Amino acid sequence: MSLIVVVELTVREGRFKEFQGFEARAVRLMSEFGGKLVYAFRPDDTDGDAEVHVLEFPDKLSFEKYRNDPRTASMAAIRDRVIESTRITRGLNINH
Description:
Layout: E1 3-11, H1 16-31, E2 36-41, E3 50-57, H2 60-68, H3 70-74, H4 76-82, E4 83-92
Antiparallel strand pairs: 1-3, 1-4, 2-3
């Protein structure tokens, strides 16, 4: 059963272009662990500084391997510079 991860991001003011570069790099790295960006959208109730990403990984272990990979850690400074806040919700895909 796959793992669904919903990530709510608030991008720092004036950093959206830099965020897009970070996002592309993170998606490429996720793919090495079987992860994929299923959907990305900007909520209507924000000023354009937020995005919601729906990710899918084959399982919890694949997600944890991605999170604990040294390359993910090496992106921390960029992430902190461009992202103001992050909220992560995860659970097993129950679609049949």
